[in-house]
Amino acid sequence: MNDRELSLVRAIGEEFGFAISSLREEFSKSIEEHKNSFNEALLQIKNAVNQLPREEKTDLEGMISAAVSSAISDLPVPASPELPDIALMVSEALSKLPTPEDGKSITADEVKPMLQEMVNAAVATIHKPENGKDFDPDLLNLAVADAVNALPKPTDGRDALNLEVQPSIDPSKSYDRGIFATHNGGLWRSYEKTHGMRGWECLVDGVSGIEISQGDQRQFTLTVNRASGNADTKSFDVPLMLYRGVFKAEKSYLAGDTVTWGGSLWHCDEPTSDKPGEVGSKGWTLAAKRGRDGRDKT
Fold first, then answer.
1. Rg (CA), the chain
2. 132, 211, 133, 197: which is closest to 168 by C-alpha?
3. Which has fewest Cβ within 10 Å: 4, 257, 269, 276?
4. Roughly what angle, to the nearest 10 degrees, separates helices 3-50 and 54-74?
């Protein structure tokens, strides 16, 4: 089946879908009308029954139920819409299609001239440069000159690449807006007329100083003080070999600790609270083994 046949089948399918949809809407509308008429009749009967005395109402309800059942059985059943024969419609449409010659609807040689014509038409719309140039150098030079002239001129003979930076800031002095100066290891700029350090902002937060403090025997704290007043702090441990005496079971040991246990010297390789030398204990390495007991010669 070629493209033309598929297009025809698709068109027939769309028409058939539209016809089915219309029939469905008409059928639903007919059912809805019957339903509304029936509900209105029931409502009228209900209102009339409610106005009767209780004894008559009981007898009448049975009569109404029987009458309603009889009326419903007498209602005509809506006829189902007759569906078209799709297979017959497709067969008739296919029979009207012309039979392609040699089993082909179109050849590559037939398509090639059409494609070539489309390409030639698209290429013809492209602007051709004159005299082998895509632009006019004089116009380009004029545009560059206009752009350069539009740049703001430097004030007082200075430009942004030749800033004057003060070697320091004297808090007792007042500086004008736009002054650059080094202070406390950083680069500062005055964004308004200054009073002391008010009016200054830190552009480059340099290092004003470094402090190192020791906590215990192997813990150290490094503090880097910034020009802006901020500080970065980092603590670290140095695995120095420290003698911690005789091993105590209730104590935890760190890497680098050494203890005496069972007459031998043990080195701690990692944080642990295990007892040295026991089966399954971790973190200990025998550093010096216990020697033989000395005996006096007689």
1. 51
2. 197
3. 4
4. 160
Pair 188, 169: CB distance under 8 Å: yes
40 pLDDT tier (thresholds 50, 70, 90)? confident
In the block, tokens 């192997």 appear at 218
- Taking the CA atoms of residue 119, residue 120, residue 123 and residue 124 in that order, the dihedral angle to the nearest 10 degrees is -150
Reading the block at residue 177, the tokens are: 């807006």
Q: How far is CA 197 from the centre of its chain?
A: 44
Instruction: Taking each helix axis as running N to C, give the angle between helix 3-50 and helix 86-95, from 0 to 180 degrees, rounded to the nearest 10.
Output: 150
Cα distances (angstroms) measured from residue 246 to each of 260, 292, 294: 5, 19, 21
Sorted by where each starts, the structural domains of the chain and their CATH numbers stand as 3-102 (no CATH), 165-238 (2.10.10), 242-288 (2.10.10)
Report the SS3 class of residue 262. Answer: coil
**pLDDT per residue over 64-112, tens digit each?**
677 667 766 766 665 655 666 666 766 776 666 666 555 555 566 766 7
H or E segment and range at residue 58: helix 54-74
Question: Which residues, 6+ apart, have CB-to-CB distance to 103 below 8 Å?
Answer: none
HSE-up of 156 (CA within 13 Å, CB side)? 4
**How buried is residue 261: exposed, middle or buried, by Cβ count under 10 Å (0-12/13-18/19+)?**
middle
Phi/psi of residue 71, nearest 5 degrees: -65, -40
Of 272, 263, 254, 257, the closest CA to residue 290 belongs to 263
| Residue 176 CB partners (closer than 8 Å, separation 6+) | 190, 193
Reading the block at residue 193, the tokens are 């007329």
Q: Whole-model pTM? A: 0.35
Identify the residue whose tokens are 């600790």. 257
